[in-house]
Amino acid sequence: MTISLKVSGIDELQHDFEQAVQLYPELAQKRLRRHKFRLKNYVKKLVCEKVKTDRGLTKGFSASDKGDINELRVEFSAEGKKNPHFHLIEEGHDIVMPFTRNGTVRKDGGQVKGYVPGIKAIPQASKNYEEIFETDIRDMADELLKKAGLI
């Protein structure tokens, strides 16, 4: 599962924005780094609310900040070495009885006993956080342009 947030529509200010980012690149990177951690914590909180327990489910969550002048984005990934089965929680899965219990074979082993619906937290988090991200990126662009003396 991956969330990718993008902001577009800066075309009219692209030249001025490029100049401002060249003058203050650390400000843009600082803001993206901040959103990387905020998005990760936002998704963790949302998943813990929906699942009602942590039990290590959010251990492998990671976020990265990527982008250039035209496209600033934060990417989020929920699966990795520490959390390889998050897709089962997100998408849902069958409840299957184990084949053995305490070394003895069960007669109902392997049978599907039910279904656990998925929590669908990633699309909801993406939709909700995109508005916050866009607003902050616009504020960052205004701040950069003011610092560079272009507004």
Instruction: Report the biggest beta sheet as strand number plus sense, adding barrel if it closes.
Output: 3 strands, antiparallel
- Total strands: 7
* Rg: 21 Å
Tally of helical runs:
4
Fraction in helix? 40-55%
Q: In percent, how much strand structure appears in the residues?
A: 15-25%
Strand line-up in the sheet with most strands: 1-3-2
What is the first-to-last residue Cα distance?
A: 40 Å
Give the class from helix and strand content and strand pairing: alpha+beta
Unreliable stretches: none
Question: Which geometry do the CA atoms define?
Answer: rod-shaped
Along the chain, the helix and strand elements come as: EHHEEHEEEEH
Protein name: HK97 gp10 family phage protein
Defining key terms:
151 residues; alpha+beta; 3-stranded antiparallel sheet; two-stranded antiparallel ribbon; 4 helices; rod-shaped; HK97 gp10 family phage protein
Structure report:
This protein is of the alpha+beta class. The protein has one domain. It is built from 4 helices and 7 strands; from the N terminus they run E-H-H-E-E-H-E-E-E-E-H. The strands form 3 sheets. The chain has a 3-stranded antiparallel sheet, with helices on one face. Strand 5 and strand 6 form a beta hairpin. The chain is rod-shaped and about 75 Å long. It starts with a strand and ends with a helix.
